[in-house]
Amino acid sequence: MDIFDVRERLIGDYREFTSSFVDPRDERIRKQVWGRTASGYQWPAPYVSLNPNFASGGTVDRLVTDGLLHPDIERIFRLKEHPGDPGSKPLRLHQHQRDAITTARGGHSYVLTTGTGSGKSLAYIVPIVDRVLRAKADGTYRPGVKAIIVYPMNALANSQLRELEKFLCWGFPDNKPPVTFDRYTGQENADARRRILADPPDILLTNYVMLELVLTRRRERDRLIRAARELWFLVLDELHTYRGRQGADVAFLVRRTKDACAAPRLQCVGTSATMTTEGDPVRQRAVVAEVATRLFGQPVVPEHVIGESLRRATTGGAGEDMLAEQVRRWHRTGQIPSLDEFRRNPLAHWVESAFGVEPEKGSGRLVRKRIPPTVPNAADDLAQLTGEPTEVCQAAIQGVLQAGAQVIDPETGRPVFAFRLHQFLSKGDNVYVTIESPASRHITSRYQTVSPDSSETERKILVPLAFCRECGQEYLSVRRSVNGFEARQDSDTGEDGGYLYLSDDQPWPESLEIAVQDGRLPYSWTVLTGDGATVPAQDKLKHLPEVVHVDVSGAEVPPGKGVTAAWVTTPFRFCLRCRVSYERSRGKDFAQLAKLSAEGRSSALSVIGASVVRALRAARSLDKPARKLLAFVDNRQDASLQAGHFNDFVQVVQLRGALYRAAEKEPDGLTHERVAQRVTEALGLELREFARRPEVRYGKEEIWRALREVVNYRLYLDLERGWRVTMPNLEQTGLLRVGYRYLHEVAADQEIWDRSHHLLRDDNPEHRYEIAATLLDELRRNLAIDVRCLTEEGFDEIRRLSVQHLAEPWALGVRERATVAGIAFPKPSGKGRPRAYLHLSGRGALGKYLKRQYDKPGQSCSVTDAQDIIRDLLAVLTEAGLVIEAVPGDGDDLIGGYRLRSDALLWQPGDGEVGAEDRVRKQLSGEAGARVNTFFRDLYRDTSHLLAGLQAKEHTAQVTPAEREQREAEFREGDLPLLFCSPTMELGVDINALNAVALRNVPPTPANYAQ
Ligand SMILES: [Zn+2]
What is the span of the domain harbouring residue 406? Predict the structure, then answer.
């Protein structure tokens, strides 16, 4: 795997995604935005850090030979592969583990402050096991709890439990441990609790909340605390997590435990990531000793604060001339040398110094590099040193890092160089402008309140921009008060918010009459009067744009001064340039106006997650357990939302991609009978990816049927208009054209139109086709479709099948409710009608569309005509078999309700160039078709099939312990490729091979990040 390639791909996907939503219309703004994007400020070069190599402390066997450990330790601490394996190789210790064992043997309390992956737990487990074995050997052993190990969270206790099983059970007769251990954290079932209380183990793993309960609850106190009399060890793992008030609580807990156990000679042990970076090493040790002393209530001296001892992986050798030669060579060959060659290589040595270790100031001891460089930074240094071109140096450095990751040190079984890329990704910057003519205004991406060309007398305020998603027109995001206008930030909510529209070439007309006359209002904003005149709709009057005059400071000024602008309030209702309007106001402007800084963060993380996992899966050199991503979010609600969002995202992308691929194979169009079948095939899923019980021998056809039914249901739901704002659908990305069977023939069949309204009867077939298709689109996009899956009974059946046969994420959600088809009535809406009723009125959007089509010189089309046309169209389409009467007319008017027949639909592939139009609602200025979001188009078309089987789950305190353990196990093995967790996961849970970690926010402290 080339991690630098993975990084390139990730950046490519992220760039596409973030720039896909906004395409500024204004040339100067576009240059500004694209220039900023091209500079890569959202994805700076990653920092690279090299994992350190620890100095060796010899094998466990050696310590036994030296008389430091009991002989049986040799049999316990070995590398074991499976439960029957007694272990072929002895365990190798690091120097700091050996130091800890020696200190423990001296009877001292101690603290281990070493980094992640340094094997901290062995530094107390070995001494504890050793002490029990020696007591057993010299006859002083009495059954009972000898050591209590306190973890700040259960996941840590769980992974420790697995470790202990490996060492103490595997390879022993009947897997019976020579030293007993158990976990008592509150996750155990009643049987396990009874067993532990009846026969307490030598080593007890718990958490500090449970320990508190054990001390106070009578039954547990009687059993466990009594068994822990004269306790030998009390271990606090991850000491640095106890801060502030919690630190004080834990300090008291330790004291009460000591009292209750009457353990005067107790050894207290702590482990910690680096607790302080202040001062020199001597000072640092003193600080740690002081904190530990306070927590434990007994002295820990600075000499017993044990830090890590590092050693170099390379030995280097020759001078700088050799370095230049190496840079050139490495650049050319991309070789993988032998271990020995690599160690002696001067360039490898230089790279280790650049990214891995440095001598400590003062002591000269090797320590981890405090501030790791980026590859370009290091390449600059290397170029200076060698006189070779920077690009050559960069390629050589990457080559060395990659090679070092493939050269295995047989002594440790690990690569010589294990390195990490730290990549930061940020959202886009807003763009700010002054309130001046678009041709001359100041444009910047730097957040500031006034423009730098302001003067003492003239204060030019800067205002953030939002953009029309359809045409890219910019709007100044402001707030209006008695003092005029001022900049409004993303986070501002309030009643006085709105937008200013400024345009040199298409200013908003000064008078409403002209605006109406010039057709500047969306069609849905006007109504026809009895005499056929167009006027603004009464209910829209208060939302109409207001012409204002504003100066550079934002103050409102008399006409003739400042610039002329149009003011509209939030929520944004329609675009003053292209007239895109939104019928349903969702209360937020997010749907209509895009801000460069505010494109859905959840979507961004889903895109990143999918990109990384995809890249890891493509890497052949990786084993399955290594192809996964661990992602941290701020809290458990976010983890749950984000996992849901990701699964939804992946499923929608897969479905849409599969529909496109299926349609592409049948250019004449997929019909209702075939669409679900073909799309299910195109999904390319395997039984284990969607079946609840993939192992069943019989009835597999039934499982496939369940999937087909769910797919069918989702396909129909996806036909609805704009229900996923941040994920444009197949029609919007131009990849799907929905046609209607036999509609061309019907439009050309003069006989069938003979009894219709004269405008229809006398129309030509092509135009009749367009009119009829527009009406059918209207039914379809409102889900007025006659199909079984959109009925209560149909949905219940799908749900039954889903519950029986399907697993997440393909199963229907537990809270998912049936979506029932709408019904279209060719008449104005009455009061109290159900929401699913669609009213096609002559005065409404469809009526106005018809008027646009038919009202011409020499031919008129009144509201009544439009209504009649709609009614007659439905009658003809019913006769033709494209539509059915779903409910008969009732009462006075005898006008029934209609649905589009699902077997009339033809699902056809599109070329992805122009999005499908909504002829009734939108009308774009000019001839340009609906803009296509190329990121999503390419995702559906080209990469969606690679997302098969991708799934995310959450890992938080909200999930039941059993479920959590299950997820940890799935994630460890790579069966679950993506885990979203709250920050509680950060503390060293055993997750096996991990190559990628994502953090949604910058963590609160450096220590959190280091974990
Ligand atoms: Zn627009």
Answer: 314-422
